[in-house]
Amino acid sequence: MSQFVSALRRVFFARNRPAIHAILVAFAFNAAPAFAADTSTLKIGTATSPQIEALKIAAQEAKQQGLDVKIIEFTDWNTPNAALANKDIDVNYFQHIPFLENAKKQGGYDFVPIAPGTIMKIGLYSKKVKRFEDLKDGATVAIANDPVNGGRGLLLLQRAGLIKLKPGVDYRATTLDIVDNPKHLKIVALEASQLARSLDDVDLAQGYPSFIKLAGTTDPNSALLFDGLENKNFAIQWVVRPESANDPRIRKFISIYQHSPAVRAALDKAFGNLYAVAW
């Protein structure tokens, strides 16, 4: 009897092999990718900052909702874009629009911003003086060395009344745009992430509260002058390659980040009134 059943099976599979093969192919090309898309790990790159804690909280909440997220921390402002271009990460979160546009121009990147995050204040900090008037002739002032944030620092120096720039210049200003420097300030350019650690060596420095908090060099709230939070052009952006602009995993994570009370609490704890949300 068993031999008879085996013979029938061989006849059935022989006659229906094309149909069975078609079913298996359809399953492989339709069912498997959908499953993979739902379960693949979302890799998010960011630069070292107190922002990390809020991102980790959002990642924990995403995990509870079935989305696996890995937060990858970089120690500089160049590698996150290189990693995104190399497809080592799916999205990065550390740069505002002016910085992104400059990076695209210099690196030839094809990136798009898909949603805004937080806006961070910058300030002018000093451990040597309490007022701008107390700066001595020839004092040393440190600003960021990248084209965008350096210009932002120069605009802040102009607001402080320490220098005067050519009329009409914006965040793309350079030291070549200085038309008046009555205190003969020596302006040096440093890596933005290192400005906080320069406060013992210079008289005045452009500073980012997040880096100052990490470095512990002074009170992040102690700037002699802050810029405002009203310019959303300086909001940190979620940046992706064009083909990932509608990736549901990325969109889901951004939504969690933007709507989570625990994320907002972490941001409040890290930055107090030194930040604002831009969404």
UniProtKB/TrEMBL annotation:
<dbReference type="GO" id="GO:0016020">
    <property type="term" value="C:membrane"/>
</dbReference>
<feature type="signal peptide">
    <location>
        <begin position="1"/>
        <end position="36"/>
    </location>
</feature>
<comment type="similarity">
    <text>Belongs to the nlpA lipoprotein family.</text>
</comment>
<keyword id="KW-0564">Palmitate</keyword>
<dbReference type="InterPro" id="IPR004872">
    <property type="entry name" value="Lipoprotein_NlpA"/>
</dbReference>
<keyword id="KW-0732">Signal</keyword>
<dbReference type="Pfam" id="PF03180">
    <property type="entry name" value="Lipoprotein_9"/>
</dbReference>
<keyword id="KW-0449">Lipoprotein</keyword>
<keyword id="KW-0472">Membrane</keyword>
<protein>
    <recommendedName>
        <fullName>Lipoprotein</fullName>
    </recommendedName>
</protein>
